[in-house]
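Exercise 7. Given the encoded structure of a 42-residue chain, write a plausible sequence.
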């Protein structure tokens, strides 16, 4: 299942951290889609 994540937000202590704002969602997606999940036996 390839569900696209738009953001992951951590909220606490009157502040927040957005993975999308930091460019981490885009970085993860480019890495995720370049991984070959089908492994061939030796």
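Solution.
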């Amino acid at each position: 299942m390839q569900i696209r994540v738009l953001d992951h937000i951590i909220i606490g202590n009157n502040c927040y951290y957005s993975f999308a704002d930091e460019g981490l969602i885009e970085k993860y997606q480019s890495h995720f889609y370049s991984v070959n999940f089908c492994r061939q036996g030796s």
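Remark. The chain has one helix and two strands. Students should compare their own answers with the one above.
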